[in-house]
Design a protein that fits this description.
The chain has 725 residues and is an alpha/beta fold. The strands form three sheets. A five-stranded parallel beta sheet has the order 8-7-6-9-10, sandwiched between helices. Strands 3-4-5 form a three-stranded antiparallel beta sheet, with no helix packed on it. It folds into two domains: 2-427, Amino acid/polyamine transporter I (Up-down Bundle), CATH 1.20.1740; 553-714, Rossmann fold. Helix content is 62%, strand content 8%. The protein is elongated, with a radius of gyration of 30 Å.
Length: 725
């Protein structure tokens, strides 16, 4: 079983090896692949949505009845410019917040915790939808290829007046009826969703293995996409340079016709609508600022290089694709399942002879592959945002934990599970997912740029270069708010309302969790007032007798030095009066996302842990109790506790291990979820090894009033897994 686990998820990494931190970090190129794939892949559906919005369609047949494609040239310029403006704003954010964190940290630090939790919640929903949208778009691209005309599996969807698929026409002239039994009985849809679910499972396994391993595995697909699409854009744009005069004349004529039929106001409204519906193009930009922590030193410079690579590639690709649609006179297929990029590639390669079809298929396969791997950004940054919020107690502290492979396994699993639910709920409908996705993206973008605008206004007297940066953030703020408002208005009934409801519910849940943890911290601190610290800050370590290996010894698991640990010691001595001839204070220095930054941070963590344990030893000495201390460093409490216990039981055969579990006056499901049962996990492991251990209850009164005296039998040691202990 252990070998299978190592094969799937990778072997444990040594946190004391300074090469480990170097090995798991990303250089700019790999960061561009891992985080930039999301942004670059959005060129498959962002320009598609924007360009399709420039046409009017017959509701019954799906045929184009009005063409306003001349606005595409403005869309191309606006798209490229918006990419650079938003990217520049996030480059400044990277400079001011070099530890990473993106929109959540910006909103928290510059606008306040309440704005921070809104931004963080929006980001979490955003990254779930990043995974779902990318996977669903990859499935659409894959089945768009399979369903191309002339292929063995070609089927043409037949729709009713409401746009619902009623049947498929098959190559042999027959009909595959859907009747009224629902889309889940559509065999094509079922097959597509199964492929998409499989892709999520594969990416989940790769990300549990580690970020760098997952990025390296997707590098070939990324490079093939870049090469094929650079060639395609060069042919589409460069090949039409000779017809520039004719194209300009046709565009001018189309624009005049559009203005005369829609009026100037109607034309502007159409452009703003198309520009806003193409908002999915910009959805991956923030990923770099969120992922600074995983980049190679110097992190800030690496992150800025990554941002330049991503912004340049996205602006050229997305803007170039929209311009190419116009130049090759691409018209949306009446079947929405056929992507605009497949139409574009078909028209570009139709005169290439025997090389055309293979190139088109390679380009489409790489695009489908990139869409699948674009979900990587959600798996990388989603758990990281979750960890940042867990460190600030907005989410359960367990989401800040790292696995033995130094991945945020809990966060990865939650992102995977929720994205699967979103995929099943929406049936993989990309148009609906992009709307849900874009709303939270631009909510976060707006808060980030609002925070930076506030910062530069407040700092204008201290920083002489403020006038260089403030206009960019203000422009980005206006653009993002505009897209947010238009998207919410246009698509509120098509999934926009659900995004707002889910995000609002998550914000309320975060507030509840934060209040619970605040109550726990307050209850623990009240213990200090009941049992004041007798040690002086400048006191020297007291001498203590050496422990007798043949005598009964208590190994007491403790966290940071405080009243809870001192109560635990007294409780232990009262429960076993005169039995123990010494105490070993034990602790686990846990490497989590908050201190996983380098070997120096590990050493600092170990120093803090050792200092806290030394205080316990001095406290025991004041009571005349022989004591010593021991600690271990790792990512999982139960695993390290087992290793430590086996070492200590070999030295002290009569040792009894003691840990504690938090109990509250009111037991709730959410309360149990917020506090791990680590003590019982350790007990189970040690009992399996034949090592004796007892778990004592740690009952806390979370009422804000004065704490009533609790009987001594309920006092006990803290559970190490809980950060607030």
């Amino acid at each position: 079983m252990a070998k299978l686990k190592d094969l799937l998820f990778g072997k444990p990494k040594d946190v004391h090896d300074e090469h480990t931190f170097h090995a798991v970090s990303l250089v700019a190129m790999l960061a561009w692949v891992g985080l930039g794939a999301d942004g670059l892949s959005s060129s498959a559906y962002g320009p598609h949505e924007a360009f399709r919005a420039l046409f009017t369609y017959d509701k019954e047949t799906g045929e184009v009845i009005a063409d306003h494609s001349s606005l595409a040239i403005f869309l191309a310029l606006g798209t490229a410019l918006t990419v650079f403006i938003i990217s520049y704003g996030y480059t400044r954010i990277i400079e001011h917040f070099p530890a990473g964190g993106g929109g959540y940290v910006v909103a928290t630090k510059l606008l306040g915790p309440r704005f921070g939790v809104v931004s963080g919640s929006a980001l979490l929903v955003d990254y779930v939808l990043t995974i779902t949208t990318s996977i669903a778009a990859g499935g659409d691209a894959t089945f768009s290829m399979i369903n191309r005309e002339g292929s063995l599996f070609h089927q043409t969807a037949i729709r009713d007046a409401a746009g619902n698929i009623t049947s498929y026409s098959l190559p042999d002239g027959g009909l595959l009826a859907i009747h009224d039994i629902g889309t889940w009985f559509d065999p094509v849809q079922r097959a597509k969703v199964l492929v998409e679910l499989g892709a999520i499972v594969v990416l989940t396994i790769l990300n549990i293995r580690g970020i760098k391993e997952s990025v390296q595995s997707i590098l070939p697909i990324f490079l093939v996409f870049v090469v094929t699409h650079v060639i395609a854009l060069a042919v589409a744009i460069g090949g039409n340079v000779g017809h520039l005069g004719q194209t300009v004349a046709e565009t001018r004529t189309n624009l005049s016709s559009t203005v005369s039929s829609l009026t100037m106001f109607g034309t502007l409204a159409l452009f703003v609508r198309a520009y806003s519906l193409g908002g999915g193009t910009y959805t991956g930009i923030e990923a770099v600022s969120n992922g600074v922590a995983i980049m190679r030193e110097p992190k800030t410079r690496t992150a800025k290089r990554t941002m330049v690579l991503m912004a340049t590639s996205l602006a050229i690709t997305a803007g170039g694709i929209i311009l190419s649609y116009l130049l090759v006179k691409a018209v949306p297929d009446r079947d929405p399942g056929v992507t605009m990029n497949s139409v574009l590639l078909a028209q570009i390669t139709q005169s290439w002879g025997p090389f055309g079809s293979p190139f088109m298929w390679v380009a489409l396969v790489s695009e489908a592959g990139l869409l699948f791997i674009a979900a990587q950004a959600g798996f990388v940054d989603g758990p990281r945002v979750m960890a940042n919020m867990a460190v600030d107690s907005w989410l359960p502290h367990r989401f800040a934990a790292l696995s033995e492979t130094l991945s945020m396994q809990n966060g990865v699993m939650l992102m995977s599970g929720t994205s699967i639910l979103a995929l099943i709920y929406t049936h993989g409908d990309v148009s609906k997912l992009v709307v849900m996705y874009s709303i939270n993206v631009f909510l976060t973008f707006s808060l980030s740029n609002l925070g930076m605008s506030k910062f530069w206004i407040q700092e204008r007297k201290k920083r002489p270069d403020w006038f260089k940066h403030l206009p960019v953030h203000l422009i980005a703020l206006v653009l993002c708010v505009t897209i947010l408002i238009v998207t919410c208005f246009e698509k509120f009934a098509d999934g926009g309302w659900l995004t707002l409801v889910i995000t609002g519910a998550l914000v309320l849940l975060c507030i509840y969790i934060r209040r619970h943890y605040t109550s726990v911290v307050a209850a623990i601190r009240r213990l200090d007032t009941e049992l004041p610290d007798p040690l002086k800050a400048d006191a020297q370590p007291a001498s203590t007798k050496a422990l007798d290996p043949e005598s009964p010894i208590a190994v007491l698991f403790v966290g940071g030095y405080g009243g809870l640990g001192r109560h635990a010691l007294f409780t232990l001595l009262r429960m076993f009066p005169g039995h123990f001839k010494g105490v070993i204070f034990a602790s686990i220095a846990i490497i989590d996302s908050g201190n996983f930054k380098g070997i120096d941070e590990v050493h600092e963590l170990e120093k803090r842990t050792g200092d806290a344990l030394d205080k316990y030893v001095r406290f025991a000495a004041t009571l005349g109790i022989p004591a010593t201390r021991v600690f271990s460093t790792g990512t999982e409490v139960a695993v390290e506790a087992e290793k430590m216990a086996l070492d200590q039981i070999a030295k002290y055969p009569r040792a009894l291990f003691v840990a504690g579990q938090l109990l509250f006056s009111e037991d709730t499901v959410i309360g149990r979820m917020l506090h791990n049962e680590t003590a019982f996990m350790i007990q189970q492991r040690l009992q399996h090894e034949g090592v004796p251990m007892v778990v004592l209850p740690v009952r806390l009164n979370l009422d804000q009033g004065p704490r009533k005296k609790v009987p001594s039998r309920v006092d006990g040691p803290p559970s190490k897994v809980d950060k607030d202990q």
